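so the lab meeting is tmrw and i was supposed to have these ready like two days ago... anyway. pasting both below. for each one the top line is the aa sequence and the line under it is the structure tokens. i havent really looked at them closely yet so no promises
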Amino acid sequence: MLNIKNKFLALVTSFALWLFPFWVFAETLYNPMSGTKDVPTLIGKILSIVIGIIGAIALVMFIFGGFLWMTSAGDTGSIKKGKDTMVYAVLGLVVVFSARAILSFVFENLK
């Protein structure tokens, strides 16, 4: 029972520490959606935010794949898993940026 209480306390503490900067700087944060009046601009801003998040996730996956590869100690299964993770991260970025380019082309030609 004590172990569950410790885990819960650690979870609540880490969540509070994660939210602390948002509470402190909430009044000085920049609103990226301010001044948006038309739908293509709004969609473009949302896509830029999503692409930034996906880029960060791809970077983490690329680092994780490299970590698996470097710590494989000659195990061919771990080497393959690390290489595959890095290849899939790059392919994911290619798909996302291709989709962004296609959407930009479509929105520019709709005006």
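ok protien two:
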Amino acid sequence: MFVESLLAYVHISAVLGLAVFLTAKVALMRPEVLAERPPLLARLLRLDNWCWASFAAVALSGLARVLLGVKGPHWYLSNPLLWLKIALFAVMVLMGLPARRALRAWCAVDRVPPADSLRAQRRWLMWQAHIMVLLPLFGVLLAYGY
């Protein structure tokens, strides 16, 4: 039971880390913030890197729970809630790609983009954050055997 608790702790911590870095990115990617402080663009890129590292941590810790957890891979892999959770997570990852590409392009020219571009990328991040809210619900349902 200790291993199961440790796996749950690591997975929840990874999800919380992702929430923190995604929230920080959303907060900084606003025209009124970046226009006043162009050096924040480099900080935004660092946050983006941490966000992607958090995506990896969530995926790896989730995989560890499936493979090493008490219920075993057969139970998890036969549960539609797991596949729904994985699908939503994949959608989140895919939604993060446009913002990542745009941010790297902005940093390459070292210039804050127009407000419309920032708002468009921020909209993608907000959708990511809204989808993320569903993941803990499905995680709890899985944990309680649904």
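from a quick look at the 2nd one: The first helix runs from residue 2 to 28. DSSP finds seven helices and no strands in the chain. will dig more after coffe
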